[in-house]
């Protein structure tokens, strides 16, 4: 009898079968990567524009500091500091300059108010 070497025997290969977890990984991971890339690109293309191309185009808003008196509102402050402008625009400028979350102010609070 002759001995058969293991190198001479070829076993039939079984067909490749993916488990449920394998299919999820094979399909899910590329989908997640594509979604992340698309969201990143959307964020880049929908980002806000620059305010100015050069520093020479930027201007500082002239302001003065006002201390809020008891019973005083943003509307009253806006009407007093800029009677020639629309009070709504001045109130919006005050809110933006001072990073106010609500439209109310407290007595003693100091606010930056635009002078133009």
Question: What is the topological layout?
Answer:
Elements: H1 20-45, E1 63-67, H2 74-81, H3 87-98, E2 110-114
Antiparallel strand pairs: 1-2
Helix pairs in contact: 2-3
Summarize the structure.
The chain crosses the membrane at residues 24-45. The chain is built from three helices and two strands; from the N terminus they run αβααβ.
Write a structural description.
This protein has 116 residues and is mainly α. The chain has a domain at 61-114: Membrane-bound Lytic Murein Transglycosylase D, Chain A. Helices cover 40% and strands 9% of the residues. The protein contains 3 helices and 2 strands, in the order H-E-H-H-E. The protein has helices at residues 20-45, 74-81, 87-98; strands at residues 63-67, 110-114. A two-stranded antiparallel sheet has the order 1-2. Helix 2 packs across helix 3 (87-98). The longest helix is centred in the first third of the chain and has 26 residues, at 20-45. The N and C termini lie far apart (109 Å). The model has no long low-confidence stretch (mean pLDDT 84).
């Amino acid at each position: 009898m002759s001995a058969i070497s293991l190198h001479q025997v070829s076993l039939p290969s079984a067909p490749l079968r993916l488990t449920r977890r394998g299919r999820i990984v094979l399909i899910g991971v590329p989908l997640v990567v594509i979604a992340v890339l698309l969201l990143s690109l959307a964020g880049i293309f929908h980002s806000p524009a620059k305010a100015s191309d050069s520093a020479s185009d930027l201007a500082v808003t002239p302001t003065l500091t006002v201390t809020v008196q008891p019973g005083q509102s943003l509307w009253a402050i806006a009407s007093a500091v800029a009677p020639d402008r629309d009070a709504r625009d001045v109130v919006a400028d005050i809110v933006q300059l001072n990073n106010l979350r609500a439209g109310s102010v407290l007595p003693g609070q100091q606010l930056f108010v635009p002078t133009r």
